[in-house]
Each structure stands twice: as structure tokens, then as C-alpha cells.
Write a sequence for this structure.
């Protein structure tokens, strides 16, 4: 077979892969860096989207999960556990299924986008819903994994960040160097930390340069921006509905070392970016992902991102994950007509202007 080999093979020399690490892959990684010409023109920057929604389970989590599950197996584990706002659980369930081990997922009841839940069900995970939020779920699984023979695969597992840093490698390879600004959504703060590690490692080896890291939390869950734990985080972007990020310190470090900023964006700003991206660029990314685009729009206005800069926005998950939020954005309902050629032709003659 002549195809992309998956992350563990492609970036073996940068990863904790040994002779004993199983050759696990769903052919994750190698996602496109899409030039956003129309948004670039509107904003006056050179904007690209790293579309992580095109990974095998539809989010960036696959990069970290392939590494974490492979290492769990290498170390003799037969089951993995995680708390999740949806994407981590979908990814853990898929890699556990591929590897033939158990996945136990603990999720906040009623706050998981429909597509993510469908994935966990189909991949055969054991699903526990709690009447609480992600932060409470994470606390519970951390405790359980200390006392039971299950491996924790949330991003507090360092192998997760090792796998996720490979997206920074790909951006440097695709652009030929690091961008001026890396815009990224922030939830539990693992991914911004992983990207920074990746940019530093690649720069050390290939002198690809370092970006300013611009992280974006949802306004109702902006713990790092406010510098305090948010007890009851709320946002339409359920993926990043997190009030006590586990990698808080690492994210602040990435911000400060890179001369960047962690900022917040409101739900209306996120939803505007969600529609704008789909309609102007044909790219359907889930609401949480669009915090990065919303953040770029906000900071171009405030001057925190300079005109003419080369900006990469990370689009962390696929829009198909959350059909309900997408449908709530529909302003014009589809026309319902009788199944006759005449009715449809009549209707279209009024909407098609040649
Ligand atoms: N975007 C999406 C689509 C996510 O699912 C997440 C996190 C983030 C951004 C934030 O990344 O946590 O590394 O800062 N989702 C986790 C989950 C929490 O359980 O799926 P982060």
C-alpha cells in the first residue's frame, strides 16, 4: 500500500514510539491547510484554516488518542477511561475499538453534541452520563484511574500532548515556516500547550520559526482570561464548556513564551464565525472550533492581530458533529412542495434570476 502511514510512523523520531509500541492507526493526521481567500480579503490578513475536522473521528483528538492508546497497550492496559465534552470520548472509543480494548467514557448529561454521542454508541464505548459538567467528570475519572486498572486518556496523560503536537509540524511543513499567529480554541487547554511544544521542537530541528499563540476561550467559560475557576461554565460551544482547565499553567506558559494572548469570544461572535466560515469558505467546522475564527475577527479589529499577518486558525472539529446547533441557525426553512415537476418549476422560476 502506498499511502500516508498515520502519525506514529510519520513522526516516529519526534514521538515516544519504541519497538514495543503497537502499530496502531486510523490514518489520522495529514489534514489540509486551507487558504481562506475570501475571509483573508475581508480581514486584510493572510488566513488559513488547519482543518482538523477531517481526522478519522472528525476532530484533532485523534492525534493524541492514537499515541495515548498505543502507549496504554504497550504498558499492558486493556481499558481506557476519559471524561469528555464529546470529541475525546468519540476518539477514545474509536481507537479502543480498533485496538480491541475497552473504553469507558464519562460525559455531562444533555451537553454533548448529537454526532459525538452517536459515535461513542457506534464504536461500542461504555457510556456513563453524570448530572454535572466536564470539570466534575474529569475529577471523577482522575480518581477512578488511580485506584482501578484503567488508563486515563484525557490530556493530563502526557502522551496525548505528544501526539497532538504533530499538527504544528504539519503546519510548518505546509507553509514552509511557522505562521505569525496561531489562533486556537481553548477548553481544557491541552491543545494550545501541545501546539507550542510542537512549534518549539520543529524550530529547534529545522529553524521554522515560532508563532505568537492566540488562544480563545468562550466568554461564559473564560477561566484563564478571568484568572479564576468558573464554577458553572456556559456556552453554545459545548466542546469548550470547561471552567477549570487541566493544562492551565502550560497554556499560560505558551502564551507568555510566545508573546501571545489568551482572550475570550462571546456566543454570538462564535455563531457569526460559524456561519461566515461555512458560507464564505465552504468549510463546516463545529461551533467550538469557530472560536478561533471569531477570535481572529475580533483581534484584527482591535489591532492585536496586525494587518498583513500570516494567520493559521485551527478548526478543531467537524461541523457534522453538531447538527442541532447548525439547524438552530437556519433562518430560511426549506420550501415544501408537492412532488410534481410543475410545482417545483413554478417555485424555481421565482428564485432563479438568470
Ligand atoms: N475544540 C474542540 C472541537 C474540542 O472538542 C475541544 C476539547 C477543544 C477545542 C479545546 O481543546 O481542551 O485541548 O483546550 N474537547 C475536549 C473533549 C475537552 O472532551 O472532547 P483543549
Amino acid at each position: 500500500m502506498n499511502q500516508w502511514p498515520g502519525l506514529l510512523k510519520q513522526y516516529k523520531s519526534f514521538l515516544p514510539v519504541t519497538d514495543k509500541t503497537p502499530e496502531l492507526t486510523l490514518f489520522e493526521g495529514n489534514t489540509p491547510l486551507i487558504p481562506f481567500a475570501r475571509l483573508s480579503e475581508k480581514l486584510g490578513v493572510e488566513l488559513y484554516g488547519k482543518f482538523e475536522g477531517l481526522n478519522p473521528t472528525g476532530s484533532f483528538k485523534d492525534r493524541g488518542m492514537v499515541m495515548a492508546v498505543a502507549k496504554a497497550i504497550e504498558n499492558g492496559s486493556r481499558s481506557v477511561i476519559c471524561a469528555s465534552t464529546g470529541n475525546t470520548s468519540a476518539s477514545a472509543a474509536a481507537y479502543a475499538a480498533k485496538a480491541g480494548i475497552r473504553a469507558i467514557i464519562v460525559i455531562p448529561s444533555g451537553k454533548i453534541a448529537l454526532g459525538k454521542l452517536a459515535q461513542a454508541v457506534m464504536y461500542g464505548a461504555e457510556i456513563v452520563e453524570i448530572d454535572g459538567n466536564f470539570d466534575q467528570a474529569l475529577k471523577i475519572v482522575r480518581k477512578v484511574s488511580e485506584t482501578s486498572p484503567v488508563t486515563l486518556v484525557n490530556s493530563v496523560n502526557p502522551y496525548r500532548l505528544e501526539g497532538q503536537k504533530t499538527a504544528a509540524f504539519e503546519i510548518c511543513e505546509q507553509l514552509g515556516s511557522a505562521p505569525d499567529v496561531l489562533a486556537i480554541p481553548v477548553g481544557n487547554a491541552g491543545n494550545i500547550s501541545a501546539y507550542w511544544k510542537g512549534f518549539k521542537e520543529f524550530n529547534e530541528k529545522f529553524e521554522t520559526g515560532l508563532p505568537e499563540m492566540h488562544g480563545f476561550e468562550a466568554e461564559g467559560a473564560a477561566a484563564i482570561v478571568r484568572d479564576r475557576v468558573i464554577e458553572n461554565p456556559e456556552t453554545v460551544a459545548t466542546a469548550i464548556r470547561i471552567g477549570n482547565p487541566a493544562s492551565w499553567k502550560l497554556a499560560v506558559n505558551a502564551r507568555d513564551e510566545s508573546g501571545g494572548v489568551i482572550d475570550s469570544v462571546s456566543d454570538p461572535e462564535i455563531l457569526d464565525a460559524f456561519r461566515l466560515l461555512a458560507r464564505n469558505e465552504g468549510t463546516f467546522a463545529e461551533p467550538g472550533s469557530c472560536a478561533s475564527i471569531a477570535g481572529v475577527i475580533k483581534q484584527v479589529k482591535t489591532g492585536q492581530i496586525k494587518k498583513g499577518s500570516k494567520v493559521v486558525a485551527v478548526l478543531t472539529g467537524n461541523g457534522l458533529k453538531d447538527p442541532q446547533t447548525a439547524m438552530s441557525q437556519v433562518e430560511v426553512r426549506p420550501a415544501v412542495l408537492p412532488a410534481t415537476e410543475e410545482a417545483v418549476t413554478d417555485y424555481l422560476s421565482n428564485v432563479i434570476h438568470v
User: Anything to note?
Assistant: The CA atoms of residues 64 and 325 lie 26 Å apart.
